[in-house]
Amino acid sequence: MAKRRVRLFFPPNLITEPIVYTMGKEFEVVTNIRGGEIAGDSGWLYIELSGEDDEIDRAITWAIDRGVRVDPVEGDIIAG
Amino acid sequence: MYDLAPLHVCELCFGPLEVAYDYDAIRASISREEIEAGPPTVWRYRKLLPVGNQPLVDIQTGWTPLLKAENLGRVLGLRNLYIKNDTVNPTFSFKDRPVTVAATMARGFGFDTIACASTGNLAAAVAAHGAKAQMKCVVFIPSDLESSKITNIGVYAPTLVAIRGNYDDVNRLCAEIADRYGWAFVNINLRPYYAEGSKTLAFEVAEQLGWRAPDTVIVPTASGALFTKIARGFEELATVGLISGGTPRMGLAQAAGCSPIVTAHEANTMLIKPVKPSTIAKSLAIGNPADGYYVLKAIKETEGLAGSVSDEEIVEGMKLLAQTEGVFGETAGGVSIGVLKKMAEAGALDPDETVVAYVTGNGLKTPEAVAGALAPPITINASMPDFESALGLLREEAPALS
Question: Is the CB of B8 less than 8 angstroms away from the CB of A69?
Answer without folding.
Answer: no
